[in-house]
What we know:
Chain D: It is found in: Cell membrane. Chain A is of the alpha/beta class.
Amino acid sequence: MLKVEDLNVFYGDIQVLHEVSIExxxxxxxxxxxxNAAGKTTLLNTIAGLTKKWNGTMTWMGQPLHRVxxxxxxxxxxxxxxxxxxxxxxxxVLENLELGAYSKAARREKERSLEFVFQLLPKLYERRHQLxxxxxxxxxxxxxxxxxxxxxxKLLMLDEPTLxxxxxxxxxxxxxxxxxxxxxxxxxxxxxNMHQSLQVAxxxxxxxxxxxxISGSSEALLRNPTIREAYLGI
Amino acid sequence: DQSTGPSxxxxxxxxxxxxxxxxxxxxxALLGTESFEAADLARKIVNEQGxxxxxxxxxxxxxxxxxxxxxxxxxxxxSKEGVKLIIGTYASGLALAAAPVAERNGVVYYExxxxxxxxxxxxxxxxxxxxxxxxxxxxxxxDFVEEALAPxxxxxxxxxxxxVIFEDGAFGTAAAEIVKSRALQSGINLxxxxxxxxxxxxxxxxxxxxxxxxxxxxxxxSYVNDAVLxxxxxxxxxxxxxxxxxxxxxxxxxxxAENLGKDANGIFVVEAPxxxxxxxxxxxxxxxxxxxxxxxxxxxxxxPAGHAYRxxxxxxxxxTQILPNAASVEDSEAIREALLKADIPEGSLPNGWGIKxxxxxxxxxxxxxxxxxxxxxxxxxxxxMVWPEKLxxxxxxxxxxxPWKDRxx
Amino acid sequence: MVLLQLTVSGILLxxxxxxxxxxxxxxxxxxxxxxxxxxxxxxxxxxxTYLLYKGFGLDPYxxxxxxxxxxxxxxxxxxxxxxxxxxxxxxxxxxxxxxxxSMMLSNAVLAYxxxxxxxxxxxxxxxxxxxxxxxxxxxxxxxxxxxxxxxLVLFLFLKFTYTGKAIRATTxxxxxxxxxxxxxxxxxxxxxxxxxxxxxIAAVLLMxxxxxxxxxxxxxxLIAFVVVVLGGLGSIPGALxxxxxxxxxxxxxxxxxxxxxxxxxxxxxxxxxLIMRPQGLFGQRGAEQL
Amino acid sequence: MLKKGGFVLSAGxxxxxxxxxxYQIKNKYYLDILFMTFFWASLAAAWNISGGYxxxxxxxxxxxxxxxxxxxxxxxxxxxVSPWIGMVVGGLFSALLALFIGVITVKVRxxxxxxxxxxxxxxxxxxxxxxxxxxxxxxxVSLPFxxxxxxxxxxxxxxxxxLALLFVALIYFITKTMERRRIGYYLIAIRENxxxxxxxxxxxxxxxxxxxxxxxxxxAVGGAIYAMYIMFxxxxxxxxxxxxxxxxxxxxxxxxxxxxxxxxxxxxxSPLDMFLRESFxxxxxxxxxxxxxxxxxxxxxWPEGLWPNAVRVYRKWRSGGVETKS
Amino acid sequence: xxxxxxxxxxxxxxxxxxxxxxxxxxxxxxQEILGxxxxNGAGKTTLFHLISGFERPDAGRVFLEGQDIxxxxxxxxSRLGLTRTFQLxxxxxxxxVLENVCVGAFxxxxxxxxxxxxxxxxxxxxxxxxxxxxxxxxxxxxxxKRLELARALATEPKILLLDEVxxxxxxxEIGQMIDTIRRLxxxxxxxxxxxHHMRAIMSLxxxxxxxxxxxxxxxxxxxxxxxxxxxxxxxxxxxxxxA
Lengths: 234, 409, 290, 326, 243
Ligand SMILES: Nc1ncnc2c1ncn2[C@@H]1O[C@H](COP(=O)(O)OP(=O)(O)OP(=O)(O)O)[C@@H](O)[C@H]1O
Ligand SMILES: Nc1ncnc2c1ncn2[C@@H]1O[C@H](COP(=O)(O)OP(=O)(O)OP(=O)(O)O)[C@@H](O)[C@H]1O
Ligand SMILES: CC(C)C[C@H](N)C(=O)O
Ligand SMILES: [Mg+2]
Ligand SMILES: [Mg+2]
């Protein structure tokens, strides 16, 4: 479905990703793991079309993504829920969600998607007329995820979706991720919560200093001694 | 100070360089440019006639959109171009900034148009003004009210209600102040004295205020934009003075009729004389006047207005009757001597002026006592001379001014 | 009695300010591009109206269908060449890019038209309707009416259409807007162009009333900023109400304090409002800090 | 300590060298250009203290220029107060106004602050025109030419140029000193994020006020020097928008919030402005058209300013082409 | 009495119709680590705003070492020795990491050399040394959180309020962070910490305050809290989980 090969990404003159190759197959949950500053966000942003300076190949369903601007990728089904929420602070929760369904295909399904999101995240229904900017940190995170779902993604990329969420919600989110997958959406997940991520993911890649150093099935990764020591702290 | 230019013994054919400072950009660009063009036309005609003592004249043009630039440009002309004589600047604010620079450098400054009295009242030795100042303009306005309008309106000057409105810049303020003090001297009833910004986009309140006091005569010192705006709004709100007098600038420009059409008719303008009765001119001046009108028509497609006459006449006289008498045109002291020596009778310049500069001991040192203002009137969308009689080419009409609903019928 | 006339005159004048301010509120208020060329866009529109009138004898009210279109295209051009490159940059960078642009526009016109004052003369330029003791200028009434309609349409557009929401979303977070599938560049271009077209409409409606000259933009720019901030950034009804207030303040203070002081009156009000209610009369609290 | 002494010493040497150079220039026109360049540089550097470092983006500094120029001129012609004293009085008046603006705008940020400063400057401009008894209105104030140290009036233009140079040097020195001290760090922190600064104990209000007041004082002194040089002031010059916008412009083009940026900005823009006016004014407005065009280019291509860009290019060149990640 | 560092008395804060914090009281003793937990939107961050002076409470008082600091400005409170971090990080983007931290250090050091010395130590302590000269705007989220901590530490506070500084860290990094915070306490600091990360809260805190819908619903040792049925219901969603 998504294939990234030999990807190099730069910020100005600084290279942040080095020859990264990953693949996501339809219906999978793939986890990207790594310490702070490893380049996880950069990878997702590049797939979403947000970084300017990169080379390598990226293909989506066999089609090259080279010349496709970010907003088109959304219509193609590549949707990113960005790090740090990035809501529209002076719009209500409802308006934020509606904007999630901006692309044409999603717009048609808007009402149904809304219902689905409110069912999944009832707290948002309670707060639907509040300005997004005045929500608590965790509530904002929920809006961000909900907004991503509104776009009817084929591939949903989640950048640290549980950051700042209470344990109860964290659990719900991981549950949600599995539910989303069941509804036919492929998921690319960046998480610091490695244990739980690897429990829901099928496969994983470990990024270190901008390079993929380890990859494999979740079980393999969970057994990998390096990972156990360096990342899980066991 | 000895500068870069060709020094010791100038060749006969070397051009004489004169600095010319005018506002060519910014909000004063319209009149500034036209004034420069009129001065430049005089220069061209002089050069065609063989120049000054056989040497062609060259203007070094300098743009001064604001006072700082005026001072900087005066500095440049003097220090870099080495000029000994600067002409300009059309606007009082610029003249007041440029003249001191010339004075301090011992270079002659010769003003053609700017009106602020202050220019001649600072004890400068090298600063001359050939044109009419605010006092002359304001006095002419009030004289005209007293001598020509009051009788025609059959109102005693003491009973006459006068309103003065003026743009709040240096020009408007200075002119209005003179009108005010002259009017008070004559016992005229000053019922309103109001200033406003020339760039205003609305003057309805001013119109309404005037309507309240219902003046017989309104005297206005305005630029074009505000003059047009005021007249349009006066019509809308049906403000009907018995006479309306504009003081030079906006009211004296062809642009007024271009923008107002027939609605301009009947308005008086206190202006430097323009297109005067040829009878009032010397033979020579008459010929020159014809030439000027013709060439200006060719250039601009319209008749020259008062300020164009100021610039043309002043420049032409300078080049033909003053500089040739200077012991050296490369020496400002000699030019100054020649200016002070000049004694040209009235009627010798194409607008009827003569030249005689007040001496250094006079409080208005350097002011030309033979320049004066006259009254024109808009008739059939053209400006014609109506007062004083000697210069007049047409009769005074439309006194009292018909109310708007009856105008242009 | 005078007060009644002054108020009516002020409201009509405010209608004209509103037209200029509504365009600016879209560009500055909604998109947060500090646009110092807005006055010059009005100036360009006025010259275009003048040219159409001089060259083809077109009545300004017919130009109403042409000039805004032309301004729309000019807006697209300005956006693509300059503004797009300063979007998201600090305000000071935007201010100076547009200040430079403004110098270019007004001086290009100066170089071409030589600073002469130009106006069109229509039969209705000075027409008035008299209701009791109150005079109402006909062109002013037309301008006011169109301004009210435009304000309403624009308000509904921003509030309820998807495009309108996309515009607001883009202001609040460009990256997220992109991630929603919004073509951010196009949104900016559209907004700037619509704002410019509105300046064009204002210009056409001004032309029967006021002469134009190259530096006239300055006169309108500051008023427009005052109105936009007073009404509340990005608030369309705010722009209308703010303009009416400024219009009335202007006529009333000009009458009682003298025309020379009238601007002082609205600057004082402007400062007071900003201090006591930084979000403006209709603005979203805190939104002014975006 | 030694480093600081070294800085003062080398700066002093540079100034001395420049003074010596000034006396080598024979053509007065170049002295005029030089004066204007130093003058604008001083206004830009003064503006930069509040506008660049503290992020208080004022476009109303003309108010301070005007107060400085008018106080000096009016005290001088009405009461024969020496401009050296008038200048300080003007500075204090400006500082007071700045204090007032600062107090009323504590909660106002971003473009709103900018608009308020514009409005205040406009108010002053209107007042200067209307309060004729005090200011002589639009006719302006002409200063008498009475050379002498006490009168701050000189026959030789060199003296003015040296005066302006010393003034620029003083402001540069103040800025440079600030940069290495707490206040410099605090001002930048405030500009970047007020809330975070407050959480770290930065007295935001006081720091902003300090910067604005200092900036206003210095700007007024600059206005006084201008008045004594041109010898004629009017509302349309010293209180015009140009006097607000140029210093800001120069700081931005040179590099906002850097000590050298405003000076570089002025050294590029002032001569450029005068050169364009000299060379291109045969077509009305062409010089300003080009000036505007160049401004747009500068802002589009070097938005951080010339100085920061130069530094970056230099660093890159020194590190052999590509910056490497540590 | 001296042992009492911070005392919060019946704090209440309303936003329009919503009461974000209702009648909350608690105390923090010298060199204690107090954990605050609660579901999203419980009012934890608001509580920090109230204590640190960023919001004015509608009712209630705050005492720092016995001194009433209610309504004082954030900068004054910080000067008195209480510093907080922001959950939504606020770096000085254009300054380098070290310069960011210097701003904090300047609170107690007036000389640049001294301030830098403090800043360098702190930067090293939180593990940002390799990034010291990088502009803060280019830091990824995890590092920004550390920067928040570093800046706060540089003010040499007596009491530190940490709002979710562990978000975005890997489990291994969290381990390091726990060590760091412990060491800080041993160095004499009193700490109030908001965190959703249960392992961190449970192993660090001496006592835990639990908030729910603006109210304090429980207070006690981690053990007591972990067994409180209301807490489990509100926070853990019916079953206890340690991430
Ligand atoms: N705009 C930028 N300019 C320069 N460097 C950047 C920029 N954004 C990120 N970086 C650098 O790129 C590297 C990777 O950052 P990235 O945000 O991808 O990390 P991450 O793995 O997502 O970390 P985290 O877990 O903290 O979110 C970091 O060293 C960061 O400093
Ligand atoms: N300025 C405000 N205006 C309106 N409501 C607000 C405002 N600030 C906070 N709130 C509301 O107050 C409640 C408490 O918010 P707070 O940020 O304190 O929660 P929190 O406990 O820190 O949550 P989280 O764990 O998600 O960060 C939330 O419901 C939030 O929406
Ligand atoms: C129009 C001129 C006669 C007067 C000119 N505007 C001045 O400022 O003096
Ligand atoms: Mg990341
Ligand atoms: Mg919180």
